[in-house]
Amino acid sequence: MICPNCKNEIPEGSIYCEHCGQTIQIVPDYNALDDVLPAMVGKKQPTGASANQNTTAAKLSANTKEFKRKRLMIWSAVVITLTVFIAAFLTWQCYIRSYGYYMSRGAACDEAKEYKDANGYYEMAIAANKTAEACFAYGQNAYRMGDYETAEQYLLDAIALDDGYADAYVILCKIYEANRDYVSIEALATYTSDKEILAMIDASLILPPSFSIIGGRYDDDVLLYLTAPKGVEIYYTVDGTAPEDGLLYDDEKGILITDGTTKVRAICKNEEGKFGFETEEVYRITYKAPDYPTVTPSNGTFREATYITISPQKEGDRVYYTWDGSTPTVDSAQYTEPILIPEGNNILSIIVINDHDLISEVLQCNYIYRP
Question: Where in the chain is the domain with CATH 2.60.40?
């Protein structure tokens, strides 16, 4: 048999050309009416060669149909497989660009303590869907890495999206405590009506004690008093160390600050044993010699008996004097009451010694008494 398409020889019984793949249509060499007409007139169909030809044609037709059916099944399987693969690929591509994927990858980085990488995923999650959960995760990692400003921004976003996100309030309170930002802690209470969160904010808001005298430069001792709300204790140090490990403040004694530079750090502790916000002041005290006292009269000529009064500038300072022009010392006469001016022309020399044993300059006054 010759292939009508490529003209090559085709083996007997083949239904397609092995050279070009063309399917061969078998055309019987007999007249189909020879089979049909006898049946119509009730005669028997012919036997012999005609019957064999009919059988061969039927087999060829069945083989062709089976081949087509198998080929259709193969192509259908290929199409279905490709469709499933493409659908799975597109689904995976959508997932790896989704909020859920970014959050799961960020959580995995958190577990490995790779906070910077985690925030890269959380940032993409926020871009995909800005939720309180994603903002909190980013803010928490920023806090862990010491970036308090960024942490505050994202944590505030979290409670703006969900005013009951308690963990965000906890970290915000820690940030504000570290910065001694009492106002911002108080402001957190305006974000929520949750009673437990409000109680936590109140517990965090243990204000520092107040100082009776502000820090600065002084020329004498400072007696400092501290005040705080009822129900708390005050602890303090004067050597710059942490007040939590310091002395318990005594309201009656106060804190006496003497010569030199002194840093007072103080903090309150509530009934549950929690310390609040710390405060501090620095005092620089340099003692100075006392000033001249006030002398009345300060000099002059007198005809009648006259008494001199001497008043130091600070109560408790001691006054010593001489009448012979010499410099007074602690062994000289101490002023305790008004002094009568002696007769003649006299020089009164005066010094003042304070409680730090510092001595003033010598003050001299001239008195002439001629009765």
Answer: 210-285, 294-369
- The DSSP call for residue 238 is S
Closest CA to 256 of 225, 218, 288, 214: 225
Length of the chain: 371
Q: Report whether 278 contacts 265 (CB < 8 A).
A: yes
pLDDT exceeds cutoff 50 at 36: no
Does domain 99-204 fall under CATH 1.25.40.10? My reply is yes
Task: Give the 3-state secondary structure of residue 321.
Answer: strand
In the chain, at which residue ranges do the beta strands (DSSP E only) sit?
Answer: 210-211, 216-218, 222-224, 226-227, 233-237, 247-248, 255-257, 260-269, 275-285, 294-296, 300-302, 307-311, 318-322, 333-334, 339-340, 344-353, 363-369
**Percentage helix, strand, coil for the chain under 3-state DSSP, each rounded to 5:** 40, 25, 40
| Correct CATH for 294-369 of 1.20.58, 2.40.50, 2.60.40, 3.40.1130 | 2.60.40
Residues 229 and 217 sit within 8 Å (Cβ to Cβ):
no
Rg (CA), the chain: 55
Distances (CA, A) of 220 to 48, 66, 283, 356, 358: 144, 117, 11, 9, 12
Predicted TM-score (pTM) of this structure: 0.50
| Model pLDDT, residue 41 | 47
207 vs 13 pLDDT, higher one: 207
Q: What is the pLDDT of residues 71-94, one digit of tens each?
A: 888 888 888 888 887 877 666 566
Pick the CATH number of 210-285 from 3.40.1390, 3.30.70, 2.60.40, 3.30.460: 2.60.40
Phi and psi angles of residue 43, each rounded to the nearest 5 degrees, phi first: -95, 160
Residue 236 and residue 255 in contact, taking contact as beta carbons nearer than 8 Å: yes
Which uninterrupted H or E stretch holds 204? helix 195-204
Give the contacts of 230 (CB within 8 A, at least 6 positions apart). Answer: none
> Reading across the β-sheet that carries 216-218, which strands appear in turn?
216-218, 275-285, 260-269, 233-237, 247-248
DSSP per residue over 258-271, as a string? -SEEEEEEEEEE-T
- Token pair of 74 as six digits: 């193969």
Q: How far apart are CA 91 and CA 85, in angstroms?
A: 10
